[in-house]
Sequence to fold (434 residues):
Amino acid sequence: MRRQRMIISAMLAATSVVGWSQQAWTYADCVDYARAHNISLQKMRLNETTAEIDLEESKAQWQPTLDFATSHGYTNSPWGEDRKNFYNGQVGVNAGWTVWNGGVRENTIKRDELQTQISRLNTDDAFRTLETDLLQVYFNILYARESIGIYREAVELSKAQAERSKALMEAGRVSRVDYSQLQSQYMQDSYALVNAQGTYEERLMELKRLLELGLDSGLTIAEVEWTAEQVLASLPPMDESYRLAVMTDLQLKSLDLAKQSSEVDVDIAKAGKKPRIALSAGVSTGYSAPGGDGFGTQLKRGLNESIGLTLSIPIFDQKKTKSAVARARVQQLNSQLDMDQRYTDLAQIVEKWYIDTRSAQSRFTAAQEQLSAAELTNELTNEQFALGLVNPVDLMMAHNDLIEAQHTLLQSKYMAMLGKKMIDYYRTATVTMN
Fold:
């Protein structure tokens, strides 16, 4: 029955993947799927569960302990005068409860509560990191796909030029060398197209890895279009973005909780010098044989009840408490340094995205003008070549300049939009494609 359930579950999972693979994946689809299937994220959730278990164990320290104990022994005395063989059995129930242990119990619960929150924040932060990884891979796929379109157009154009030069060669208007040069250009563009297609497949594989999809799973990315106005839209103030990034950063929140946890560790370490009070109680009886009384009589007469109070005052502990406090204070300072480092890193990250985005916007503006000039030059050169006014070298230079201008514009567009999305992410902790 269990095997049947496993087979059914596997079939349902496979059906789910097939259903996803039959549609064009948006960025939001990728995020939703990765949230449920990414293995690294699932491991983080297991760490969160472990922290919750530790917290429950800490809370249980307020409960008393209770155990049942029984011992049985047989003694043989070969040269004994009275009894050579003797059996003894003891049965008891013991209970204990720690009244006071220097605040260790309360502080341990407080620390484990903080650790549980830290674990949850770490899981959320891991998911946010996954979101940004998906975003960059998604952009790489979009860029690679548009690059294929550029090279495909280049192949069609160079093929037409090669075919035209062949006709001109047969008509005696161009030399065989000219035709060979244009044919070589066509082959180079075809090779570049194959490389672009290979790059696109590699980027898809990266996305599949993040989504934990099988290598044989089909995957198509939805179309995304941005206007030039969106690419060149002004950015919000950098200091405002940094302030919002600090407010929404989960790592900072986690480090702040870690600092609080280290402060609790100091209190726990200090408890080593405080007295401890514990209560104990027990009920026991025993039976021995051979004996003068019967089994029931012995159990009745041997029945005893006990209750005790233990006070323990540490005097010398070989500097264990002092060392524990010192280590806890070092960890406390380290936690503060981690927070300071995160503030610095966050400022540098935000500033870098602003620098990269503004640079990409500037390149996009220049690339628009460069592309217009390259398109016009390529068009005029083709007309002149048809009239025999330019040689194949000039034609190929115009052709390559056009391809380069198209790629420069495409690259700057995606770099600018990626930067804008990342800046929005640090401001709002969310990513959208629109």
In short: Strands lie at 24-25, 65-76, 85-100, 220-221, 276-289, 304-312. The CA atoms of residues 381 and 395 lie 6 Å apart.
